[in-house]
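for the writeup, i need someone to sanity check this before i put it in the appendix. the sequnce is what the collaborator sent (i think, or maybe the updated version? ugh). structure was predicted straight from it, no edits. if anything looks off just tell me and ill rerun, i have time this weekend
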Amino acid sequence: MAVSLVQVPCGELVTVKKLEGEGAVKRRIMDMGITKGAQVLVRKVAPLGDPIEITVRGYELSIRKDDAARIIVE
């Protein structure tokens, strides 16, 4: 079942299935190492839900909620 990264609870390990969006937004997400097939661990979510701290390809990264909503995972 595919959901966006925003809907994944803390501590969950998921795989990126696809990236939504176009142009510069999609390129920026891909430049952070978030590409199809990458394993993503949701580490923390800020109290108001923004930003979300994840681990991808061995490093920690904080991304905005609107960017996380564009990342479809399974």
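DSSP finds two helices and six strands in the chain. The mean pLDDT is 91.
thx in advance!!
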